Input
Amino acid sequence: MINAVVFMQQYFVKELGNPNEQVLLDNEQAHHIRRVLRMKTGDIIRLADGTGRVMSASVEIEKDAVYANIIEEVIDTSITKVKMILAQGMIKGEKWDYVLQKSAELGVQEFVPFVSSRCVVRLKDEKMDKKLSRWNKILLEASEQCKRSTLVSLANPCIFSDLKKINADLRIIAYEDADQISEKLCDVLASHKEIKSILLVVGCEGGFSKEEVEELVADGFHRVSLGGRILRAETAALSLLSNVEFFYDMEGDRK
Ligand code: SAH
Output
């Protein structure tokens, strides 16, 4: 196995194949290789199947098709030690796309959009199918760009109380209205060192009502403060994700 972070470009394919086998790349990938990156036959790429397996491959450019000749398995360093599930209150426009993209980069395994009482985005939307496929595309492209070996699984948008049905070893709701009852993120993580999965719930622009927070706390969620400033929803999500990865992944490295 080789460490292939250096390889220029990664593509997700359905069937990865084994060394010495050949994979046909789809039209969009072929176009990207040929016209955008102007690769030549023999150039090296990474292929991933979304489940955690990654292979190096050499490109073979033919007249009307582009193939990848599988070389060998690549050491994968992209998976976080603790599986992160982000439940994000739906926010509008570009900020939503931004959270999706950055979540993929920061290692989220599952992304769950939800609406709560103060969200302006509605759940019933005729264009939801189209939106989901656009969001999946953002996640896929970000995953290729940051060379992760797994895809982010995007759930159908749900309502707030459905969040209680999501299983995880540790469940956290970030609440902006910090008071004595809120716990500090680092204290909560420090008392849950051996977990395998974590659910992080972040509100929309309007935040949460007291009742909503109490509903989750009554179900065993930890209500957590991210400090003395009110962060925008997208900042809160990214801050949580990077802090969680820092705590679990970097701590292991120090030992
Ligand atoms: N409209 C609200 C702010 C919402 S911020 C207000 O003006 O009070 C959007 C979301 O980001 C919140 O619901 C919460 O989940 C998270 N958030 C922002 N700042 C936070 C903080 N200091 N601590 C914990 N969560 C925070």
User: Anything to note?
Assistant: DSSP finds six helices and 13 strands in the chain. The two ends are 25 Å apart (CA to CA).
